[in-house]
Amino acid sequence: MNKGNEIVLAPQKKVTYSGNYIQFESAEEFIYDAFVTMAAASKADSIKFGVTTDGVKITAKSACNLLVDVNYVNAMGQVKKVQNVKVNFYKDAIAPEIEDFALAAVSHQTVVDASKQTQLVDFSTYFAKYANDEASRILWNADASLVKGGQVEIDGTTYSNVQAVWEHENEYGDIVTTVVDDLVSDIVLCDKEGKNEGVNAKATNLKVKFAANYGNTIDFGKGKVTVYATVSIEQAGSAKPVQTTIVIPVTLKNPTAAEIAAQYTFDPAFYANGVLTVIDATAIDLGTMISAKDGASIDYTGLKAAKELTVSGTTLTMGDNAKANTAYEVKGLKVTYLGGRSFDMPAFNVKFVDSKTYIADMAKASFSLISGNDADANSDMVFYAEKANDKVTPKIVNFYKVTNAGGKFVADDKVAIDGFKARVNDADKAFASDLIKVEASENDIKVTALKRITVDTNVVVPVKLTVTNADGSESPVYTSFTVTVKAYPVQ
Questions:
Q1: pTM of the predicted structure, to 2 decimals
Q2: Do 56 and 9 touch, CB atoms closer than 8 A?
Q3: Whole-angstrom Cα distance, residue 261 to residue 290?
């Protein structure tokens, strides 16, 4: 029985069937024990070609022709010997002698940039063992070659030309070892900078060139990955090359958060500082707000939102308890790229807001007023005006104005005061104070002190305005200003 560089002798018998049909069958029942020894004529050659015997197994390291003696004890206890049995080991059948050499583990940061999907590996420890002086390195430079893949034993079975294996936990919780054939495109010798590829004399490192997007077998960050290469050194004569399987433990790290974030963008017209703001709507289709780069896609399968929002596919809708101008958390999205792998996107907020057709500018409305009673009659005015004016009587010092969304001043005949009210819990709440009295005079405001006080006190005055639109409809505008009621002078 020929097994490459092993030959195992087995007893057979010749059986003749009807029609003179002849077949060789096992004759183990006639043999009690057997072993092989080298014939005298081949003892020198057996040493030269690395031939050993073990029982009935003959192993050779090189191609050769030999004579052996077969010694056996038959079932009757008789000792027999068959001398000078010819054994041939053919060159193409001899498996090269292979040993393993493990390099230091490396970590690789996975990236989408194909030009960076490579990893340099320090190869100096190999040279320290196999080419550790000038003479041996010269020979190595002349005779060595390197290819991806190596001989690997998995669960008692030896596999050849394995580029990588992945040891990981499967869906059932079992640790399994998977042979991976789509991770590595090439492994080459190079210098420390990754240059001079394939130049033996310059070699100090290996460069592992990963397949595009690292194939699609391995989940980054899970389990252990080992990459293999083979160094072959040609031998003189008919001997097979001496081969060494190079073992490279590699950790494939998930892409960085910045790299993942670079694969998608929110619509910049509506997104800033982690908040997606939706204007004048109660629902938003996230698919219209988030776009992925070429080669990437957004996975909405796990989309979740705060309980105030409802989720349907890629759409978020305000529920009955949702409020405007309130940020609600959204999470569970993934971005898929790098060979179909999915990575978590950070949570973000969605806020629904109502547009303001008109804006009240109260920057110049706030003022200070000396406290006092009815006898003091301390009062002041806040006028509706586009700007201050000291050329008129009374002078316009304190003023407010309303502009439209484009910043244009709204004429005073389009603005009316609808009371001093604040909007609280979707209802108007009237202003009340025992320090000041507030009155409307058309769209101007008069503030009068009601009593003397000894400590400066700020009073916020809410104002509800009504603006008449071009079509005759009205729009409410809520705003406020502050009156600082000053302490009454004392001796």
A1: 0.63
A2: yes
A3: 12
